[in-house]
């Protein structure tokens, strides 16, 4: 299959509204059974089965079998990145938009982008890391970790040297589709989210991409990185 025909096939799969909802439900990196994905997409189990088969064949999903149960997840971070980038494409010029509901405000404030931190908090954390000289922009949309950055990450329990980079590097710049700025992705971004949750600064919500910033987390993020954004939910 040529690059162009592969692009067209993937675009056609994503363009279907039900399949789009299925893919969106998996953006937080979890693996979900067909029943939950059918519910998320508002379709029957039989219809979901057909859509899941097409997404598997198209390379957008992977499946894991546990006993009699099958769990579906995105085929990888490259699929999540593509979906996030597509979500940020809008028509030029002024566009009338509905006001965000509670769930939309939660996701914009702080969420998972597949397996790393995104939203207003994710962008603010990344900005703080750069302003303090812990991260520096690098070629090919990457971040370089400075010696001061390695020391800071070690101070919160993250050994940068123990994180295995992928072929795309250790730390990657990911364009946040709601904030139009970059947040930290790649293996370092994955480990940072894990550590911040383990330290009780953040809390991932079950069955949601939304991430909560705990009271302790607000204080620590402000002290360490100057993150002062208040939750839009407080308004």
Automatic annotation (TrEMBL):
GO molecular function terms noted in the UniProt entry: DNA binding
Protein origin, superkingdom: Bacteria
The keyword Magnesium is assigned to this record: no
InterPro entries cross-referenced by the UniProt entry: ArsR-like_HTH, HTH_ArsR_DNA-bd_dom, HTH_Metal-responsive_Reg, WH-like_DNA-bd_sf, WH_DNA-bd_sf
HTH arsR-type domain: residues covered: 1-94
Keywords attached to this entry: DNA-binding
Listed Pfam families: HTH_20 (PF12840)
PANTHER family per UniProt: TRANSCRIPTIONAL REGULATOR-RELATED, TRANSCRIPTIONAL REGULATORY PROTEIN
Descriptive protein name: DNA-binding transcriptional ArsR family regulator
């Amino acid at each position: 299959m040529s690059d162009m025909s592969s692009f067209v096939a993937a675009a056609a799969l994503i363009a279907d509204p039900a399949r789009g909802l299925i893919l969106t439900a998996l953006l937080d990196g979890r693996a979900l059974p067909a029943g939950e994905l059918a519910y998320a997409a508002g379709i029957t189990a039989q219809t979901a089965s057909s859509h899941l088969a097409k997404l598997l064949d198209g390379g957008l999903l992977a499946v894991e079998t546990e006993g009699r149960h099958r769990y579906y997840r995105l085929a990888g971070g490259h699929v999540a990145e593509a979906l996030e980038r597509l979500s940020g494409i809008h028509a030029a010029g002024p566009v009338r938009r509905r006001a965000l509901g509670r769930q939309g405000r939660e996701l914009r404030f702080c969420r998972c982008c597949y397996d790393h931190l995104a939203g207003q908090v994710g962008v603010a954390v990344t900005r703080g890391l750069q302003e303090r000289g812990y991260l520096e922009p690098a070629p090919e949309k990457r971040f370089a970790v400075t010696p001061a950055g390695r020391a800071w990450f070690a101070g919160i329990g993250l050994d940068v040297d123990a994180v295995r980079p992928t072929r795309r590097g250790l730390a990657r710049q990911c364009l946040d589709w709601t904030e139009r700025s970059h947040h930290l992705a790649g293996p370092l971004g994955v480990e940072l989210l894990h550590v911040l949750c383990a330290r009780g600064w953040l809390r991932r919500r079950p069955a949601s991409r939304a991430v909560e910033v705990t009271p302790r987390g607000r204080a620590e993020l402000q002290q360490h990185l100057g993150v002062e954004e208040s939750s839009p939910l407080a308004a």
